[in-house]
Amino acid sequence: MDNSFSKQTYPWKTTVDYRVQPEKYQVGKGEQGVLLCEPYKSEILPYWRFKTPELALASSEKIYQLFLAYLKQNDFVGADLARKFLQMGFTRARRYANYAGGKKYAPGSAQTLKKGTGDPQKVISASTFYKKWRLAEQHQTYKMMKTAWKKRYG
Prior knowledge:
The chain has helices at 40-44, 53-72, 76-98, 121-138, 140-153. The chain is an all-alpha fold. It has one domain. The relative contact order is 0.15. The model has no long low-confidence stretch (mean pLDDT 92).
């Protein structure tokens, strides 16, 4: 296991209001920062659910609507975080589909537990989130905003 994580150098901070200081936001990789960036975390997290396919459908629809609303407001940070929540819905539901209780590793170990022991309903939840995540990723306005953001802020 790599223990090189440093809270001091991690770019996302809970103490920053990313709506007030959007220039401090970094896109990063995958879902990085999704549960740290306020006020967006508090705006999106209450809708993030994947326990059943029905909840996943309602959740992914609502989060995608938030994604579109952020785009309409020209709020790239909000849109990117909504996209990250969609991605996280997919990855977390897949984890629960693959492993009983969503536990990939044995307690206190790096030993991977047996795959294929999870909840088959989570496969449907994962698929639902995957479709919305990909739709968000492919949105032309989002793609243009992301390119401009990375060019300006890295």
